Amino acid sequence: MLINEYKPGREFMGRLDYGSDLFLSLLSLVKEKDIKVGVIKVIGACKKSVVAIYDQEEKKYRNVTLEKPMEIVSCIGNVSTAQGKPALHLHIVLADHEGKAFGGHLLEGTEIFAGEFYIKELIGPTLERNHDEVTGLNLWI
Ligand code: ZN
After folding, report:
1. pLDDT at 141
2. From ligand 1's centre to the CA of 77, what distance in Å?
3. CA dist., res. 120 & res. 11, Å (int)
4. CATH of 8-140, one of 3.40.50.720, 3.40.190.10, 3.30.1330.80, 3.90.800.10
5. Residue ranges of domains in the chain
6. Residue range 65-89: mean pLDDT, rounded
7. What separation in Å is there between the alpha carbon of 89 and the centre of ligand 1?
8. Which residue, of 5, 50, 57, 96, is most buried by count of CB atoms within 10 Å of its CB?
9. For 23-61, how does the pLDDT look when each residue is reduced to its tens digit (9 = 90+)?
10. Is the model's pLDDT at 139 over the cut of 90?
11. Is 38 helix (H, G, I), strand (E, B) or coil?
């Protein structure tokens, strides 16, 4: 188990632009504000979404593109680093017009209809992602 202790840092809250890419907008914000470690929460709606589901047997992500309006019921994740650069790990739960949910690991390509974000910076040790042989994932090592 890996456990680090952090103190609260800055907090940001705001609105994402119509038509913007959810993942890339958050990544550029994290870079602009120089956030090394933190947590992210987003709610809203998107016009199109791209998520991935990890196949634990094959150790590969299976990408799914949904070309329809969906509600962003919940998108949560964290900020850390990989090769010293900011890395976002975000999961998203989306709901269709009937409220049926679909979710996965958020990728680039999710186009915002409306989005409200909250980012909290944490002050303390950096968390660096590296390839983990057992899972095939980039984990904090
Ligand atoms: Zn993930």
Report:
1. 86
2. 8
3. 5
4. 3.30.1330.80
5. 8-140
6. 97
7. 6
8. 50
9. 999 999 999 999 999 999 999 999 999 999 999 999 999
10. yes
11. strand
